[in-house]
Amino acid sequence: MKILVVEDDKTVGQYVKRGLTEAGFHADLVGDGAEGLRLSTGGHYDMLVLDLRLPALSGLEVLRTLRDRGEGMPVLVLTAQDAVDFKVQALKMGADDYVTKPFSLEELLARVEALGRRPKAIAPPLLKVADLTLETGSREVRRGGKLFELTPKEYAVLEYLMRHQGRVMSRTLITEYAWDYHFDPGTNIVDVVITRLRKKIDHGREPKLIHTVRGVGYVVKA
Amino acid sequence: MQTLRGRLTAWYSGALALTLAAFAGVLYVDRRSASYQDLDQRIQSEASLTAGILAESYRARGTLVRPDSAQRPVLIPDLAALLEAVPGFLVITARDGSLLFASSDARALTFQQVEQLRGLASAPPSGRSSGTLRLEPNGPRIHYVVQDVTGAGPQFGAILAGADVRTAELGPDQLLSTFALVLPLGLALALLMGSWISRRALAAVDQIITEVREITDGRSLHRRLAEPLVKDELGRLAETLNQMMTRLERSFAALRRFTADASHELKTPLTVLRAGVERAITTPNLSQDTLATLEETLQEIKRMTELVDALLTLARADEGIAPLHREPVDLRGIVEEVRETGELLAEESGVRMEVATPPEPIVVSVDATRIRQLILNLLTNAVKYTPAGGSVRMQLGSANGRVTLSVADTGIGIAPGDLPHIFDRFWRADSARTRTSERPGAGLGLAICKWIAEAHGGRIDVVSRPGRGTTFTVTLPREPSATNP
């Protein structure tokens, strides 16, 4: 899938481009609205990641012109304005989704994937680590055939760790995923969830699957 | 005298009353002295006239005096009859001081009083004299003139002409009573007129007040007052107010631009930082030290992001442009949603957590994201300031068209002196409430809670007893109010 990133800030643009490329997309970057409009007309790209504040031609104008020309590709808007009416305005003009700066790369990728209608490639319905399985459709978690009752937060934390199994996930990233991106409890609330998860999943079983990385966060691996 | 109109009317009427009183006083004094002069002239001419008649008659007839039945000398009868026509008191004495003639007014006096008059007339005057005296006992005050009689024969001494002073005072006194009648009437009229005039004059001011109030409610700053063509004081006032509103509008626009610019300028570098750290932290095979450092950095970036967000939210709220995205929601759903988070927070601090929700749905049109933020803020605070072993209780209820949500803790409480300030931005209580690990931006939490409650047309209240605990209560109207569309 080819994605055009229109972003005047070079550093942000480069990160978005690199992040998309690493996630397996083909991404190009342009720095102003007029150029972005020119390139995105004519069906070269499958998706547009559009910053709203651009030199020459604002993001909203690019968006309106594109839609007027009948271009129907999905558009993900990047905005520094978290005012609801601004987002509503962008959505009304034909944007499909938005991400508020500063965004997490993970959030951006998740939204791009959702817009590209490829959720299954990234999130397989069944996550598996050793004998622990997590079914994303039915939200059922089993180990060795035993079904666990997990609370919403326990489920979210476990799903996140299993999705990135083998990788150390920091507390901040886990918090952002399981709560919303703007919740900051100021305490290590994740630790409490992990303690509960261990009681349910690892207690009295071998091998232990949830591991602590001191000062950083947690990793799920066999 | 709360209004300018009342004060103006009082000032007018006071000034008018003073003017009228002064006018009445001057007029009265003037009239009185003129009356006295008239009286003086009248009795002088009476005296002269009498002297003239006596001299004339003497030349025509010779003797004017003859003895009466008691052998006392008196004026001849036809002359006496002639002199009766002279009004007031007229007394003529002989050279030896005896009474030759007394007018009917004088004869009506008591003997003692007549003697007084005779005494005045017989005191050897040098030509002519005048004066005022009271006739004793209890007689009238009279003004008199004494004049020598010459050319009327050797028997005559002097003439005394006098009049009751009251006759001179009658005119001015009447004037005074007329004033006493007219003055209150005039004053009442002045009050009415003054009130009417000032109402008319100030109606334009009232109009300006109404218009300015409409304009400055935050959404109509582009409007201006109608400026009258006549540049009188009110015209200049309207003009000045318009200039002020232009400057206000400009600075509001500048603030809005600044807010947008600041959000962009601050958020872009934060995005860059965040993307960099996020990429780095997911690099395989990093040492644990590096990972821990990156995690700390990520945490700080997140805190800074929250701070920027909170500041911008409040800045927009001040401007009245932080909009709510309202939808009908069952508040029990939001409470249930945050319940687990609250329980996790409580568990970590060793605090007991209770949640009470009513059995029936409480559907209110609110901005669910903001309400969730509000509840989470209150819960986080409650747990933070409650020592292990305490409890936090969250309760949702509905009564009288209002929804109440309270978060009560058994924590350290807030000093009474601090209570009025806890909703202020960046305000920190005494050291008991300030932890070394206090997060940046935490000073904005309650300010934002207050804004969220008020933006929904509700309010937030706090009751606290140091050492016993604190209860925050959020009250929201069930029907969305028109204040924040």
- Quick one: how many beta strands of chain B? 14
Principal-axes shape call of chain B: rod-shaped
Work out the count of structural domains of chain A. 2
Report the CATH topology name of the largest domain in chain A: Rossmann fold
The CATH superfamily of the largest domain in chain B is known as PAS domain
User: What's the β-strand tally of chain A?
Assistant: 12
Number of helical segments with 4 or more residues of chain A:
9
Q: What fraction of residues of chain A sit in β-strands?
A: 15-25%
Could you write a compact summary of the structure shown?
The complex is a heterodimer of chains A (222) and B (485). In chain A, 40% of the residues lie in helices and 22% in strands.
Q: Could you explain the architecture of this structure?
A:
By secondary structure, chain A is of the alpha/beta class. Chain A has helices at about 10-20, 35-40, 60-70, 85-90, 105-115, 120, 150-165, 170-180, 190-200, and strands at about 1-5, 25-30, 45-50, 75-80, 95-100, 125-130, 130-135, 140-145, 145-150, 170, 210-215, 215-220. Chain A has two domains: about 1-120, 3-Layer(aba) Sandwich (Rossmann fold); about 125-220, Winged helix-like DNA-binding domain superfamily/Winged helix DNA-binding domain (Arc Repressor Mutant, subunit A, Orthogonal Bundle). Chain A has a five-stranded parallel β-sheet, sandwiched between helices. In chain A, a hairpin with a 2-residue loop joins strand 8 and strand 9. In chain A, helix 7 packs across helix 8. In chain A, about 40% of the residues are buried. The mean pLDDT of chain A is about 85. By secondary structure, chain B is α+β, with helices and mostly antiparallel strands. Chain B folds into three domains: about 5-170, PAS domain (Beta-Lactamase, 2-Layer Sandwich), CATH 3.30.450.20; about 235-320, Helix Hairpins, CATH 1.10.287; about 325-475, Histidine kinase-like ATPase, C-terminal domain (Heat Shock Protein 90, 2-Layer Sandwich). Chain B has ten helices and 14 strands. In chain B, strands 4-3-7-6-5 form a five-stranded antiparallel β-sheet, with helices on both faces. The relative contact order of chain B is 0.06. Mean pLDDT of chain B is about 85; it is low at about 430-440. Chains A and B meet through helix 1, helix 4, helix 8 and helix 9 of A and helix 6, helix 7, helix 8 and helix 9 of B.
